[in-house]
Design a protein that fits this description.
By secondary structure, the chain is of the alpha/beta class. It has 2 domains: 192 residues, Rossmann fold, CATH 3.40.50; 53 residues. Helix content is 43%, strand content 12%. It contains 11 helices and 7 strands. Strands 2-1-4-5-6-3-7 form a 7-stranded mixed β-sheet. Helix 2 packs across helix 3 and helix 9 crosses helix 11.
Length: 280
C-alpha cells in the first residue's frame, strides 16, 4: 500500500473519530453556542434578551427558576429544569434573563446554547465543560421529539450522566411547548396499538420526569398583556395616551388571534417604530 493511500486512510479515520476538542477560553464571554462539523464552542459577545423585571405574568416561574439557578451558581445542589407550555409566553426569555441576573449578582455562570439536532454530540461537550473551572448552564430551546426520533436517548446523558454521572458544574435547562416532549397524538397511538400499552411509551414519556423542576407557562389574560406593553413603554421612555395605547394594543392582539408575551413585544416594536423610538 502506498504512502498516499495510508495518508488518505488516516485522514478518513480522523474525520470519523476526531481528536478531543481543546477547551476554549471561557474568560472571553459569558455565553457560547455549541456547533458541530467541526465541533466547537463559539462565543456570543452580546446575548439577545430582555430584563427580568419586564417579564410580566410569570412571577412564580420567575422566582422558582431564579432561586434554582442561584443555588447552582453558588455551588449548591440544583435541579435540571423543563419550562413547558404556551408559545410566546417567555420561556426562553426567562432562561436568558435569569442568567443575566445571576451575572449581575457577581456569580460566574456561563450559558451554552445547544440545538436539539446536536444532542448526539452532547457527551463530548460534557467532557469539555466538566473539565473547565466554571459553572455552566446548558440550554436547549424548543425541545421536542417525534415518534421515531432517537435523539432523546442522547438527552438522557445530559440528565442522568450515565455511569460517570453528570458533571457537577453543569445544569441543563430546556424549553418545550409539550409537557412530555412528544406529541400527544403519538402517545395515544402507541398506547392503542401496543401489546403492553403501559410500557409502550414509558421510555419517552418518562424523559420529562428526569427534570427535577417543571415550570408551566399558560396563555396570559388581557390585563397581563397590557401590563407587558406598559412595562416596555416605561423601559424605553415611550409616552402615549393610555386610552389610545389600550385601544391599539387590543386591536393588535385581535388581528393576531391571541395574546402572549411575544405578541406584546411585536406590538411594542411596531409602536416604537411609528413613534421614532429606537430600541437598544
Amino acid at each position: 500500500m502506498t504512502d498516499d493511500a495510508l495518508t488518505r486512510i488516516a485522514d478518513a479515520l480522523e474525520r470519523m473519530a476526531p481528536a478531543p476538542l481543546a477547551s476554549p477560553d471561557f474568560t472571553g464571554a459569558d455565553a457560547f453556542v455549541w456547533h458541530v462539523n467541526p465541533e466547537r464552542l463559539v462565543p456570543v459577545p452580546r446575548v439577545s434578551r430582555v430584563a427580568l423585571d419586564l417579564l410580566v405574568g410569570i412571577n412564580r416561574s420567575r422566582d422558582t427558576l431564579l432561586a434554582n439557578t442561584l443555588q447552582f451558581a453558588q455551588g449548591f445542589p440544583a435541579n435540571n429544569a423543563l419550562l413547558w407550555g404556551a408559545r410566546g409566553m417567555g420561556k426562553s426569555s426567562l432562561v436568558k434573563a435569569v442568567h443575566a441576573e445571576i451575572l449581575a449578582r457577581g456569580h460566574d455562570l456561563k450559558i451554552i446554547e445547544l440545538q436539539r439536532d446536536d444532542l448526539p454530540t452532547v457527551d463530548r461537550l460534557m467532557q469539555i465543560l466538566g473539565s473547565a473551572n466554571h459553572r455552566f448552564l446548558l440550554f436547549c430551546d424548543d425541545l421536542s421529539f417525534s415518534h421515531d426520533d432517537q435523539h432523546y436517548k442522547s438527552l438522557k446523558a445530559v440528565l442522568d450522566g450515565g455511569i460517570a454521572g453528570r458533571p457537577e458544574n453543569v445544569l441543563f435547562y430546556a424549553t418545550s411547548n409539550r409537557r412530555h416532549l412528544m406529541p400527544r397524538d403519538m402517545i395515544e397511538n402507541e398506547r392503542s396499538s401496543a401489546i403492553n400499552p403501559g410500557e409502550a411509551v414509558e421510555e419517552k414519556v418518562s424523559l420529562s420526569d428526569r427534570f427535577g423542576l417543571w415550570l408551566g407557562f399558560h396563555a396570559c389574560d388581557q390585563d397581563d398583556f397590557l401590563a407587558m406593553i406598559d412595562g416596555y413603554c416605561a423601559a424605553h421612555g415611550l409616552t402615549i395616551d393610555a386610552d389610545t395605547l389600550r385601544a391599539e394594543a387590543i386591536e393588535w392582539q385581535a388581528t393576531r388571534g391571541g395574546r402572549s408575551g411575544r405578541v406584546a413585544w411585536q406590538f411594542f416594536t411596531d409602536l416604537a417604530g411609528r413613534h421614532g423610538v429606537k430600541l437598544a
